[in-house]
Design goal:
The protein has one domain: Nuclear Transport Factor 2, Chain: A (Roll), CATH 3.10.450.50. Helices cover about 25% and strands about 45% of the residues. The protein has three helices and six strands. It has a six-stranded mixed sheet with strand order 2-1-6-5-4-3. A hairpin with a 2-residue loop joins strand 3 (about 65-75) and strand 4. Helix 2 runs antiparallel to helix 3 (about 45-55).
């Protein structure tokens, strides 16, 4: 029996790290050979590269994101969640994140983008 946190808890910790704009919190959740696939980042492999990408694009002044998650759907080691991400510049992005979590670490994160709305339009 593994002492690793369940995949749902790891996915929620990811959103806590993004909310806190904490590279170290995010890095701690990523397997060393983690993969990120998204329209913005393309494909990248490696926890350090992914953490650096987040630091440069989402954790700096003026670029921080405030994610609001919908229900999490869990199937074995995969967690799917709809996300509303509000940036400091007022844009709201709709995303679907799919996490693969093994041994308490994110091994793959696929991010699918929906519309980006100007002026703070959001679903509350």
């Amino acid at each position: 029996m593994s002492n690793s946190p369940p995949p749902k808890d790891v996915a929620l910790a990811y959103f806590d790290a993004v909310q806190a704009a904490s590279r170290s919190q995010l890095r701690a959740l990523l397997a060393d050979d983690a993969e990120l696939v998204s329209i913005n980042a393309g494909f990248m492999r490696g926890a350090e590269q992914i953490a650096d990408y987040y630091q440069e694009n989402f954790f700096g002044a003026g670029t921080r994101l405030r994610p609001k998650t919908g229900p999490l759907i869990v199937h074995d080691d995969v967690v799917a969640v709809e996300v509303q991400a509000r940036s400091e510049n007022g844009k709201v992005s709709w995303l679907s994140d799919f996490f693969t979590v093994r041994d308490g670490l994110i091994t793959q994160l696929n991010v699918y983008y929906g519309p980006v709305l100007e002026g703070g339009a959001s679903q509350d």
